[in-house]
Write a structure and sequence with these properties.
The complex is a heterodimer of chains A (about 140) and B (about 120).
Chain A lengths: L3 E10 L5 H14 L4 H22 L7 E9 L2 E8 L14 H6 L7 H8 L2 E7 L2 E9 L1
Antiparallel strand pairs in A: 1-2, 2-3, 3-5, 4-5
Helix pairs in contact in A: 1-2, 2-4
Chain B lengths: L3 E8 L2 E10 L4 H13 L4 E12 L1 H16 L3 E5 L3 H9 L7 E3 L2 H9 L1
Parallel strand pairs in B: 2-3, 3-4, 4-5
Antiparallel strand pairs in B: 1-2
């Protein structure tokens, strides 16, 4: 069994003003366990996209709501979970973005999930009761 | 907003936006307002100098997506320059280099507007 290392948690209100704090929180953990700058950058971006999606889609910019973030690692992997109690996300509704099409239709957004999947090795969505969880894993 | 700043300057007939710091869903509106002002003032030849840009998330890329068609249809372009490797990588992951003019430096961008 892999040894369990430190798990850290952060609870923040669902507001873009906390984005930098959330990114720095996960980056600090990733740096602490010795990840290189490329991996740290990818983790920062993945958590940014996941948290931004919760703010915009799960909570519709209601900053009174909270997001719980957990980051942990063992010898084999680093994982980040974000939990909210907003509108659920249907992962089957996700498509790889067609950039040209989006530009023509003047749509923006919809790129976050694609980026997360590119940046992380594993992404899972769960809904338990009223809680949505996105769990992102990077193999070490 | 402490972690993002933007300044506009003019070189020949080209408007240059110098962006610095971190561009995310919180700071993207600054870039959006700056681009909107340029377009409202009929400046359609735009260079975004990213030399001070440390970080970009998809919300930042969304701003470039929202205005490129309008600017091009008015005979201009939005060209991006001086990106560091980490920032370029995000543009690359989303396929931007095939649709946007991403150049090494400002001089190259100014030259390409002349041609």
């Amino acid at each position: 069994m892999a040894e369990t290392s430190n798990i850290q948690t952060l609870t923040v209100e669902a507001s873009t003003e906390h984005l930098a704090k959330v990114r720095n929180f996960v980056a600090a953990h990733a740096e602490q366990i010795g990840l290189d700058q490329k991996d740290v950058s990818e983790i920062r971006l993945a958590v940014d996209e996941a948290y931004t999606n919760i703010i915009k889609h799960a909570y519709k910019n209601d900053a009174k709501m909270n997001v719980n973030i957990e980051i942990g690692s063992n010898g084999e992997q680093l994982w980040i979970s974000l939990m909210d109690e907003g509108k659920s996300f249907d992962p089957s509704s996700y498509n790889e973005p067609d950039l040209m099409q989006r530009i023509k239709e003047k749509k923006r957004g919809g790129m976050g999930v694609y980026l997360i999947r590119k940046l992380m090795d594993q992404v899972q969505y769960n809904r338990t009761g009223h809680t949505n969880e996105i769990r992102m894993v990077k193999k070490l | 907003m402490k972690n993002f700043s933007i300044a506009t300057r003019q070189k020949q007939n080209v408007s240059i936006l110098d962006i610095k710091g971190e561009l995310d869903a919180h700071t993207a509106s600054h870039l959006e307002n700056a681009l909107k002002s340029l377009i409202d003032e009929e400046n359609y030849s735009i260079v975004v100098n990213c030399s001070g840009l440390d970080y970009i998330a998809s919300a930042g890329l969304g701003v470039f997506m929202a205005y490129i068609e309008d600017v091009r249809s008015l005979g201009g372009d939005i060209k991006l320059t001086n990106m560091n490797d980490r920032v370029y990588n995000v543009f690359d992951l989303l396929g931007f280099p095939t649709l946007y003019d991403i150049l090494r430096d400002e001089e190259e961008a100014l030259e390409s507007f002349e041609n």
